[in-house]
Amino acid sequence: MQKFYIFYHNYIQEPRAQKLFNAAKENGLEPHLIIANDLIFKNNEIFYNDKKISFTPKNLYWTISSTLTLETITFIGSLNNTPVYPLNNASIYIDKYRTQCFFASIDIPTPPTTLISTTDYQKYIKDLGDFPYVLKKTHSSAGKAVELIHSFEEIEEFIQKNQVVKKVPLKINSFILQKFIPESAGTDYRVLCIKDQVLGIIQRTAKSGFKSNFSLGGTVKYIEKNEEMEKMAKKIMQKSGLFMAGIDFIKSNDGYLAIEINPSPQFEGFEKVTNINVADHIIKALLQK
Fold first, then answer.
1. Which residues are CB-neighbours of 163 under 8 A, at least 6 positions away?
2. What is the CATH number of domain 3-84?
3. Superfamily assignment of 183-287 in CATH?
4. What's this model's pTM, rounded to 2 decimal places?
5. Taking each helix axis from N to C terminus, what angle separates 278-287 and 15-26, rounded to the nearest 10 degrees?
């Protein structure tokens, strides 16, 4: 029987892992849940509970959430020419600034953005226009480390609060500053894709403030059809080569703007309003690869 290994972290509740386990079993696979925190790496091999995980092309491998875990396990798999999904290029798009550069390179509209990685950043942001801005860590998820900023003092406070390592040069910490689109405040759209297929679109609306994440208490509504977002999402998937992604958009007065790509998306809120079994779609797409 073909084995399916699911790597995930154990320090958070991870319903996706169990959903994938169940879907794999229903599709005739032999699933194995692997807590990535407990892996042992020896040279070019991985061990779990004193047993070696043999990477062979006949089995399937999936990682959830962690950039480091994805890159490490993908490297081990590459030694045996074995793909690990959602594939190693997924780590590129976890970086929000690199994602903005990618959008620009394929002519996908996005809010004006700049990178803050030096202490003299003020001279670089004048082209964004007046406050307010949206300030984000380049690596964050679930709406964390994202704030609406109204002054340089608030930028400094945000940086001090969100530096990975305190009392070190700013250049080892990176943040992006985006022009705030007032007409989009409190609402965004998640387009969930597997390969070149759009599974569906949901609209997320904030309970309060401007962050609309379902994980922060936002409400979710199913959007049956939107050709503009679907067209952009398919182009993003094609050009990125990603196996799976949740692509986020906001709506400006001039149309939809792409803001982020999440290559390891949560799908609890999506399933709640669409009744689509995302894990089953993932397994079926893997088996057809």
1. 170, 173
2. 3.40.50.20
3. ATP-grasp fold, B domain (3.30.470.20)
4. 0.90
5. 50
> Which residue is associated with the tokens 């379902």?
214
Identify the H or E element spanning 80. Answer: none
Question: Which of 139, 113, 102 is CA-nearest to residue 240?
Answer: 102
Give the integer Cα–Cα distance in Å for 266 and 2: 26
Walk along the chain (289 residues) in steps of 10 and give the mean pLDDT of each run: 92 85 98 92 88 93 82 86 88 90 97 84 77 89 81 89 60 79 92 96 81 63 95 97 96 97 90 95 93
Read off the tokens for 129: 């226009």
Q: What is the DSSP string of 154-211?
A: HHHHHHHHH-SSTTS-GGGS-EEEEE--GGGTTEEEEEEEETTEEEEEEEEE-SSSS-
Reference 135, options 183, 97, 188; nearest CA is 97
What is the CATH code of the structural domain delimited by 112-180? 3.30.1490.20
Which residues of the chain does CATH 3.30.1490.20 include? 112-180
Strand order, beta sheet including 51-52 = 40-42, 45-48, 51-52
